[in-house]
Every structure is written in structure tokens, then in C-alpha cells.
Write a structure and sequence with these properties.
Blueprint (H helix, E strand, L loop, with lengths): L2 H15 L8 E7 L4 E7 L2 E4 L2 H6 L3 H9 L11 H13 L1
Antiparallel strand pairs: 1-2, 2-3
């Protein structure tokens, strides 16, 4: 393996540990629940899920679980990605 690839692998490992570098703007996943499998999405700061509970309440166990998994990695509704990039750079500088 060449030194360029070794360097990229090391950088990827470091990036994976620095989760504050990552912000999801849009996301679409398949979530296998206890009773069924649902499509769950996150778009422009808003969650959506195919399950009946989400349809009536606007949130569900599937979206709440993903919020926990992705804590600190979601772009909040109305927040500009450029602002996040600046604040992320400040956080990394500390």
C-alpha cells in the first residue's frame, strides 16, 4: 500500500472520531422496527416516517432513535450550513 493511501486511511479514522465535522442535511433510511419496516427521512430539518404513530403525532420511536444515533450531526431547521461550517471550525480550534 502506498503512503498516500495510508495517509488517507489515517485521516478517515481521525474524521470518524471527530463527529462534529459531520452534518446531515438530508437522509433517507430503512428502519426495521419490531412489527414492520419503515422508510424514515430527514429533509431540511424535518423528520418523516411511514408509520402510523408518526402520521398522528409528528414523531415516533423510529425518528427519536435516529435523533439519538445522529445527535450533533443534524442540520437544524432554518440553520445555514455555512454558519455550521464556521461554528464547526471554531469548535475544532478549541
Amino acid at each position: 500500500m502506498d503512503s498516500g493511501m495510508i495517509s488517507k486511511i489515517e485521516k478517515a479514522k481521525r474524521y470518524a472520531e471527530e463527529r462534529e465535522r459531520i452534518r446531515f442535511q438530508d437522509l433517507s433510511v430503512t428502519f426495521r422496527g419490531e412489527h414492520n419496516t419503515y422508510n424514515v427521512s430527514y429533509h431540511q430539518g424535518r423528520w418523516s416516517c411511514e408509520c402510523g404513530f408518526f402520521a398522528s403525532r409528528g414523531l415516533c420511536s423510529h425518528t427519536m432513535a435516529l435523533e439519538r444515533v445522529l445527535r450533533g450531526m443534524l442540520v437544524p431547521d432554518g440553520e445555514d450550513l455555512a454558519e455550521l461550517s464556521a461554528s464547526g471550525a471554531e469548535a475544532l480550534a478549541r
